[in-house]
Structure formats: C-alpha cells, structure tokens
Specification:
Blueprint (H helix, E strand, L loop, with lengths): L2 H11 L2 E5 L9 H12 L5 E4 L4 H11 L6 E4 L2 E4 L1 H9 L2 H12 L1
Parallel strand pairs: 1-2
Antiparallel strand pairs: 1-3, 3-4
Helix pairs in contact: 1-3, 2-4
C-alpha cells in the first residue's frame, strides 16, 4: 500500500484526523501541542498520526495536501489547516461548529 493509499485510508476511517509531530500525550513541537489543546478544549474525538513514525506518510502528506508544514487537521477528509488556522477557527467559534457537525453525523 502506498503512502497516499495509507493517508486516504486514515482519512476515510476517521472523521477527524490530526497529523502531528508526536502524540497527544507527548507532542513533539509547540504547534502540535497547541492544536491538541484546542481539540481537547472542544472535547473533540479525533484520531492522530505521528508523522515521525511513518516517514513515507510524512513526505507524501505534503504533496497530498499541498500544505508544507505540520500539524495538519482534517475534518471529513478535508484539510482544515495548520496551527494558526485551527486557533483562529477556535477563537471565532467556527471550529466547534465544524466538530459538532461531525458528532451529529455519527
């Protein structure tokens, strides 16, 4: 299975996916840590992928998303953005609405 196939399978398997450096319990960069904090503040149910554990996915995701940095948050298979965008969406109330739609659809 190619790295792109793995990414597509991960996104199809979970409505909310965070590609991050490290894990929610042990983020390995400040940006990943901030996104985890925001998702926790929203009581979000999400899957995470530690990009350090799969270098092929780490590189392929940049091409797949056309987004060069991490973390990357996806909701319903759609790239929402990185840390700054997620924080902005949280601050203006849009992130909680996006996450509520996922919860309602389950």
């Amino acid at each position: 299975m190619s790295a792109i196939d793995r990414i597509q399978a991960q996104l199809a398997s979970h409505p909310v996916v965070l590609y991050m450096k490290g894990t929610p319990d042990f983020p390995q960069c400040g940006f990943s840590s901030r996104v985890v904090q925001v998702l926790q503040a929203c009581n979000a149910d999400y899957a995470h992928v530690n990009i350090f554990e799969d270098p092929e996915v780490r590189e392929a995701l940049k091409e797949y998303s056309n987004w060069p940095t991490y973390p990357q948050l996806y909701i319903n298979g759609e790239l929402i953005g990185g840390c700054d965008i997620v924080i902005d969406l949280f601050n203006n109330g849009e992130l909680i609405n996006l996450l509520a739609k996922v919860t309602a659809a389950q």
